[in-house]
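User: Study the fold:
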Amino acid sequence: MIRACALSLQTHRATNLVGEMGTGKTTIGTAAATLAGFERVLVLCPPHLVRKWQREVKATVPSANAVIVRTISDLERVRHAGGWPLFVILSREQAKLSFRWKPAVATRHVVAGSGAARDEQGGVVALTCCPACFAPIVDDEGLPLEEADLGRKKHVCEQCHGPLWQADCRGPRRYPLADYIARRMRGYFDLLLIDEQHEYKARGSAQGLAAGTLAEACRAVLTLTGTLMGGYSSTLFYLLWRFSPAVREEFGYADEAKWVARYGIVERISRKAGDDDAYEDGRSSRRKGYRTRVVEKPGVSPAVLFHLIGNTAFLRLADVASGLPEYTEEVRLIGLATSASPDEPSQAAYYQQLASQLEAAVHEALAKGSKRLLGTYLQSLLAYPDACTKGEQVIDPGSGAVIAAVPPLPEGHRYPKEQALLDLIETEKRQGRRVLVYITHTATRDIASRLESVLMEAGHRVANLKADTVPPERREDWVSQRVKAGLDVLLVHPRLVQTGLDLVEFPTIVWQEVEYSVYTMRQASRRSWRIGQRRPVRVIYLAYRGTLQAQALTLVAKKLKASLAVEGELGDDGLATFGDDGEDLLMALARSLSKRVGAGDESLEELFADLRHSEREFNEGFGQALDADAEITRVSRSSPEDEAQILDSVILAKPGAADRPDDADPQATRSAGQQLRLF
């Protein structure tokens, strides 16, 4: 894999490495850059991975010099740094963050006759003008712009084209290092190595724009990611546009719709109300025109592979670590707490009361054509069972009226899921296994403090990792210190540790609350099952039976089954149905509410069991195929020169090859399939 990436870097300006979580993409990227002969490498990574990158670069290439830059002065000192090769590690925060700006205008009084013009209150009328040419600042319709209007977006004077904004001295004194490198150090770095490439997919995000700026300033680009796309073709467009010259030649920056029309799945919805709701009639025929809404759906055309296959390497964990311990996932459905008498308050009774009140309000709003209560309905019912000691009051965002409310339950009682977590931790602790507990409600409906107190009362050593108390760059050291001190349980939001951190000290992972983004769930579930893990890894999902939690987990399981938890396996089922957006999942839950389509508890457990069985069968078959290929290689006794020719001609397609999928012949299509299989 290292050699394949190195050959691709020598042949293409941009190379992508898509590796499953835990495959060692940092090591592969560092070694490939060195093997390809790059002398100065700029690494762009998340802030909490800066020190890890420095450590792993030195471990992979002992002769390398790995330095961390945070300021312009650090960048200037890099010019005189020694060592070969030189790896300059830059946090994406320093790359994108700039100074604060404010409008830059001059004020001129309006003259009427021999004096100043005055308004109805007697005040002097003034116009905002350009500070350079003193021309009045107006909008497209010729109306004067106020200073407040200029503060929303940077403007340029229409007369002299001078900037109408300036630095605000009251803000932080900093400059985006990506812009500095593009202006003062263009061409200095031979290679830009981007970690967690998928985090730069948004069109207008500051970090995406900074990454694109750095890619233009460097001679070649190597991107690393565990999730190439999020199920929609549009999520792939800006990634390829920023880092692939071939895509930029064919598509413009604003051609996302063109890309989606060619490689995506589009649904066109035409609405008809009554007998006929045409908004336009033909003047000389019986033609009718109807309003049509275009919506992008999850999925991508196989033709998009022609933009990837020539310079993308796909890697599975089974390829590099066949001896890893067993990885298992388990779903445990737990019943809500009930009471002996129907009149007594209980968790189950209050949940049913809250659900019935919300359902009535939602159906009433939907009947009137309003969807404003869907998000409130879903979030309240998903969160209430775990935060029942806080109570719940749901307010209509439109009218401000209370549409549902239940009082808080006693805090001194241990509720079923809490007791299940305690029993699980006791069992794991007796086996000498630490437990990582994921919770998603850490703000308005924060349950971390209650869980922490419940676990500490039971005699466990607990730590709670929070975003506002531990900076990203210190999280790895913070966790290591707690582990050395004898930590038993770590409470954390999955998004804080979903990338980069190796948590092999926690072989048991419990989802106390499920994150309904498939991407986050997949990333966070693999924090422990990585190279270096010696103990079997167990992942347990806890959900209350018969609630919206179980229904949401069912939908997540279906998407996990479709994707097979493997990046690089671009099969029809996975890309046709895979989507990682939490909002789409909420809409699916809303549709199931209106259609009354729900999965039983047995189907939920069967889905996860079937998912693990399918992945196990795939790994076994893939391993047998690798063994067969290895046997053929030993029999053929190919020379290193022959192997290099095979890698150059088969694995790495020539630049521009198969750029036009419509013109590709069947033989070329078969070659592309062979290339994909070799990865």
Notes: Residues 601-636 form the longest helix (36 residues). The CA atoms of residues 279 and 290 lie 6 Å apart.
